Amino acid sequence: MAAPNTLGIDFGTSNSAAGVTVAGRPWLIDVEAGETTLPTAVFFDHGASSMRIGRDATQALIEGDEGRFMRALKSLLGTPLLREKRRIYKQEMDFIDIIARFLRALKTRAETATHQDFTHALSGRPVLFHSQDAARNAQAKIDLRDCYLRAGFADVQFMYEPEAALRATAPEAGLGLVVDIGGGTSDYTVFEQQGDGTTRVLISHGLRLGGTDFDRRLSIDHVMPLLGRGSAIRNSFGQGTLPAPNRIFNDLATWQMIPFLYSADTRRKARDLAQHAVEPAKLTRLVSVLEDELGHDVAFAVERGKILANQPDHPAPRIDLKVLERGLTVPLSSEALNRSLSDQVSEITDHATQALTLAEIAPPRINRIVLVGGSSLLDAIATDLRQLCPNARIYNANAMTAVADGLALASASAFA
Ligand SMILES: Nc1ncnc2c1ncn2[C@@H]1O[C@H](COP(=O)(O)OP(=O)(O)OP(=O)(O)O)[C@@H](O)[C@H]1O
Ligand SMILES: [Mg+2]
């Protein structure tokens, strides 16, 4: 029996891609005009029943179109929020439906590009969707499978993302470590390879921590205080003040939680805080972010600030908050960036150490580190890994596409 037509899909927290093997090489489809990756973002037009995805969705947000934007949906897998039905404009939906629509759009685009039908999918998955909660981790896989089935695939197989990246890496004799630091998770594969390409995976290991968590930390440290986080609120009854409750600010700093804040109840709470605030100007900003639905604009501003601060020699890295107020910016030096992220970067390096310990490989024995994922571009991470494995050369040429390339390569035999 011929193997079914299988599409390799890297469904990422921040970016996604899809591909197949052509003449023995990975071939990623143009998921958008001239682009082989697209932001994992969706936008529901107010009034229309359509859903826009990728750069088109981001554009709708930037242009201030009426509608609902969502990003980092992968982070909801395994959580109870995923299966809650909600009304999104005219339709009753859960987040499985939304992710399924996104995957269906990738499927359709791949079918149009290749003139064939894809009945099956080979999907990447983090080694651990949830590294602190085994039940949620198991549920996340069930959830992602349901997303693929609802998208119209008859069946789906999963492959660990760092192992997919390894498939797309040129073989070289020795011991190696793949480190994939994406938007939502950090994933590790320790491997041993022969010169002829024979590869043995010694261990794969995972941590739920990635670039969206960096954005969250930076937002909490550098932006949320301007919206009133930590500022004093007068008691409605009696004397004295209390600090504003953290919950709203923490959710506003968390990509996947932003849409849940746009409710009448949260807006009422924010207005109440503003009314009793000792510094009402700050809390008034919070009220307008919630009323004008600017949470994602702020998150994008933080993400851009992070990338600027990570650029060597940028003259004036900053988080540009003009979307909130004309001229409002927060300077973000590379030192401030590293200070805010130092605990998280250490955690990522600690887990690289753990992966090597589990594989029973002493770090100096590693010849090669393959760095993958957008967050691996963070200078502090490469520096730490270099220290951990002093004899390793660092490869990062295909950081943004290695996982998708590997899935494309493995797709042909996934159901064979
Ligand atoms: N130059 C850069 N410096 C620091 N971070 C960056 C840079 N470029 C991109 N990023 C970050 O990389 C992350 C996205 O990386 P990537 O596309 O690999 O994630 P993903 O595959 O979607 O997520 P995951 O694999 O965790 O599900 C984002 O958090 C983004 O802000
Ligand atoms: Mg990824």
UniProtKB/TrEMBL annotation:
The keyword Transcription regulation does not apply. Pfam families: HSP70. It comes from the Bacteria. InterPro entries: ATPase_NBD, Heat_shock_70_CS, Hsp_70_fam. This is Hsp70 family protein. Gene3D superfamilies: 3.30.420.40, Actin, Chain A, domain 4. The keyword ATP-binding applies. Belongs to the heat shock protein 70 family. It comes from Aliisedimentitalea scapharcae. Keywords: ATP-binding, Nucleotide-binding.
